[in-house]
Amino acid sequence: MSFASRREFLLGASAAWLAIPAALAAERGLRTAQAGVDSHELPQSWLDVRKMGAAGDGRAIDSGAVNRAIDAIAARGGGVVHFPAGTYACYTIRLKSGVALHLDPGATILAADVPREGLASGGYDSAEPQGDWEAYQDYGHNHWRNSLIWGEGLENIAIFGRGRIWGRGLSRGVS
Fold first, then answer.
1. Residue-level pLDDT at 43
2. Which of 24, 121, 152, 156 lies at a 20 to 30 A Cα distance from 18?
3. 90-116 pLDDT, tens per residue?
4. Residue 77 contacts residue 26 (beta carbons within 8 Å)
5. Residue 82 and residue 77: Cα distance in Å, rounded?
6. How far apart are CA 152 and CA 174, in angstroms?
7. What Å distances lie between residue 72 and 68, 133, 146, CA to CA?
């Protein structure tokens, strides 16, 4: 298994495992949204990322707007950050407790490509320092912050909906 596919597997497996408790908590709001509520009239506990400046066009880097939306929802005491259909090119997204991400059908969170020149981390958070064991462990197993989506010590989080998360920009030479 290559580094990129291991990382993509771990991201997917972690997201699926972590999504269960908060998806159940967010189900009530989702039922409200599906019961005839226009996508522009989301429940009070939901926040559309486009209202925080996300373009969703696949070209603009939307991670700043996504992280602002997560911060705003967390400051309210929790809720759902909503991604309507579109492609949201992002660098690191920092999850917080009590926050769920909902991806509509046609919504994609896209790991933005690492630029050939520019920032050393390519816009992703820098990997956290490790202890003496670092030389004996695979990079992806002990560096979590240098990822598309991460959080530490979180509870009541979820990533749900019919959209997708595409790690394209994290791969090494595979599209």
1. 86
2. 121
3. 999 999 999 999 999 999 999 998 765
4. no
5. 16
6. 29
7. 6, 37, 23
Is residue 160 very low, low, confident or very high in pLDDT (cuts 50, 70, 90)?
very high
Cα(160)–Cα(68) distance, rounded to whole angstroms? 19
Helix (H, G, I), strand (E, B) or coil at 113: coil
Contacts of 96 (CB under 8 A, 6+ apart): 70, 71, 73, 74, 151, 154, 157
List, in order of start, the domains of the chain with CATH numbers.
3-170 (2.160.20.10)
pLDDT value of residue 130: 63
Listed in sequence order, the residues at least 6 apart from 57 whose beta carbon sits closer than 8 Å to its beta carbon are 86, 87
Tokens at 157, concatenated:
């989080």
Q: What 3-state class would DSSP assign to 43?
A: coil
Q: Which of 145, 110, 138, 108 minimizes the C-alpha distance to 124? A: 145
